Amino acid sequence: MRDISPAEVHDRPIVDVREPSEWQQGHVDGAIHIPMGEVVERLAEVPDGAAVICRSGARSARVVAYLERQGLDAVNVAGGTLAWAAEGRPMVGSVA
């Protein structure tokens, strides 16, 4: 599994695996929302090459490991939405 910084995401599609309440508080502009508990049943919605993000990077790391076992190219956004927001990257809402 590979971690990348928010600055390294570039043009990768972003998949946010946080819970709906977390998503509603604030999320990466343009991200796809697929809560961690729904990834298996919604696997077809996960784009190959995705950068997976959660609040701090722990849940997304587990999801990336699963996606790689399914043959998808995926990377973990180190530091999650907390790091994303701290770097001033585009957000819808804010991260508490």
Number of helices: 3
The CATH superfamily label reads Rhodanese-like domain
- Strand arrangement within the widest β-sheet reads 1-6-5-2-4
Mean pLDDT, to the nearest integer, reads 96
Uncertain segments? none
Tell me, what is the CATH class? Alpha Beta
- Beta-strand content bin: 15-25%
InterPro entries: GlpE_sulfurtransferase, Rhodanese-like_dom, Rhodanese-like_dom_sf
Domain Rhodanese: 8-93
Protein name: Rhodanese-like domain-containing protein
Organism: Agrococcus citreus
Explain what you see.
The protein is an alpha/beta fold and 96 residues long. It has one domain (3-91): Oxidized Rhodanese, domain 1 (3-Layer(aba) Sandwich), CATH 3.40.250.10. Helix content is 26%, strand content 22%. The protein is built from three helices and seven strands; from the N terminus they run ββαβββαβαβ. The protein has helices spanning 20-25, 58-69, 80-86; strands at residues 3-4, 14-16, 26-28, 32-33, 50-53, 74-77, 91-93. The strands form two sheets. The protein has a five-stranded parallel β-sheet, covered by helices on one side. Strands 3-7 form a two-stranded antiparallel ribbon. β5 (50-53), α2 and β6 form a beta-alpha-beta unit. The longest helix has 12 residues, at 58-69. The mean pLDDT is 96.
